[in-house]
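In this section we walk through a basic example: taking a raw amino acid sequence and producing a predicted 3D structure, encoded as C-alpha cells. The instruction is simple. Fold the sequence below.
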Amino acid sequence: MPILSSIGRRSPASRLLIALIYAALGLGALAMLYPLGLMAAGSTKSIADLRDNVLVPRFLVSEEALWQKHLEALFNESMDALNIAFDTDYIRFSDIPLPPPDAPGANLVPLWRDFLAGGHLPPEAIAIGHYWAPQAGAFPAQLRRFRRHLQDTYGSLDALNAAMGTDFDAWYTVFVQPPAYLFPYARPDATPLAAAFDAFKLTAPDWCRFVLSPEGFFKKLYLKPRHSREIAAYNAAHGTAYASYAEVPLPRDFPSNAPPLEQEEWRDFTANTLSPLWSTRGVLDTPETRWRDWLAERQESGVRSQESEENSAILNSSFFILNSRSAPMPQFAHHAALFREHKADIRRELLTRNFRTVLDYLLFHGRGILNTAIYCTLAVLLALLVNPLAAYALSRFKPSAGPQILLFLMLTMAFPHMVTQIPVFILLRELGLLNTFAALLLPGMASGYSIFLLKGFFDSLPQELYESAQLDGAGEWTLFWRLTMRLSTPILSVIALQAFSVAYANFMYALLICQDPKMWTLMVWLYQLQQRSGPGVVQASLLIAALPTLAVFLACQRVLLRGIVVPVEK
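The resulting C-alpha cell sequence is shown next.
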C-alpha cells in the first residue's frame, strides 16, 4: 500500500512534499557522484597536473595542458633532461607554453628531420621518452612496448634471464635504467640487456625520442651551478658581455685564445664531467657539431635539385648562411610540431596509461586474480551452505537454548576483526593451515549476523507448507533444500553479496594469514602496487577494484531489492 493515496497526491501540499523528496534524493545522488567524478579524473593524473581538482582533466580540453603532460612523459619526469635538451631554465612542466607554429627555429624543422632520418647520429645520442615515470609509478607506452618486445623475442621469463644474465622474477619487474650517456660513468653495451634496449629505442616513434645535448649539459649542469643562473655572474667572472647563456659557446677543441678561466672550464668539463663518447683526440664530436657540419655541407654543396622548395629557401637565406656554424638544434620547435601531428595518440596514451599500468600489474604478476576468484567463489558457497543450515536448525527445531545460542552468535559482532586476528593466526599456525585457502575460509565461514537474518526470514515462512510437505513424505533435507532454500532466494542473495564483498575486500587478514606471494589475493597485490605508485595510479587501481563489486550488485539488483522488500511485507 503506498504511503500517499492517488487522490492525496493531487493536493498542492502532497506535490510539494514529493518534489522535496525527489530534490533531496537528487542532491544525495550528486553528493555521491561528485567525489566519484573527482576520483575518475584523478585516475588520469601525473606529476604535471597533480594539484588539479577538477571533474574533467584539463589535458582533455586544453591543448597547452596536454603539451605539458606530454613533455613530462617525454623527458621521463626530469626537468633537468628537458632544460638540457631545449637549453631552457623552466622550473615546472606546468610553466612551459606551447610554442606557436611559427616560433623561432620552426623554419629549421624540415632540415632537422632530414638530418635525423639520414642516420647521422650514433645510438648513444638518442634518448627515449614515455618510458619511465619514477614519481607517478606508471608503466608508460614505451616501457610496455619494450616488455612486449622481449616477450615476443624470448617467449618466457626464464629464457630472457638465461639469455641476458638477469634474475627478473616477473615481467612487470623487467626494466632498464635509461643510460645517461652525457655522464662519464655510462657505457654503451654495458650489459646484454642494455644493448637490447639501445637497439629497441631506435624503433620508438619520433614523438617518443629526443636527442641528447652536450652543449645544454655544459650550460645547465656545469656553468650555471658554478656561477649563477644569471648571465651577469658569468660575465663578471670571464670579462665577457653575453646577453644570455644561449650565446655562450662550447668550443669544439681547446680554446687556446680564450681567457685562462674559460680554458680551465673547457678542460675540466671535457675531461671530468662529459662522457668521453663525445670527444675524439681532444676534439668534441657531439650532436650539435654534427648538425652544424651537416648544415654547412648542405649549404656549401650547392646541390639544389635534391632539395625541396621549402628546404632550398632556408638554405639560401642570409640568416642560414650567417648562422649555420652556430645554429642550435631546433628540438623545441621539432617536438612542438610532432605534438600537433600526434595529438590524438598522445592524449589516448596519457588518458589510459594509469589504467594500463594497473591491468598489466595484475594480469602478468602473480596469481592475484585467480586466487581472488577461487576465494570469493568458495566463500559465497560456504556462506550459502553453513549459515542457512544453522538458521534452519534454530528456526525449525526451536531448541530450548535457542535464544542464548542466537545471542552468543550475535556477540561475535561486538568484537572487531583486529581483536581476533592474532588468536586466529596462532590457531591456524598450530594446525599447519597458513598459506592455504582453508585458512582464508574457515574463520569466517559462519556469520552471526547472517544466521540471525536467515532465522528471522525462515520464521516468517508459513508452517502449513512444511506440514503439507511432510504429509507427502518429504524428509528434513527435502524440506530444507527444495522448500526453504527455494523460498529464500531474495535473502540468500543478500547473504551471497555480503559474503562476496567481505571476501573480495579482505586485505589485512589475507596478508596476515597468507604471507606467501603465491597465495596473495587481489587486494594484497593492489596494496603492493599502491606502495610504489603515485596518486594517479592509486586512484585508477581503486576504480578498477570497484568494478567487480559494482557488476555483481547491478546483476543482482532486482533480487536484492526483493530481499529487502519481501521480509517487510511478510
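Looking at the output, two observations stand out. The longest strand covers residues 126-128. The two ends are 13 Å apart (CA to CA). In the next section we compare this with other chains.
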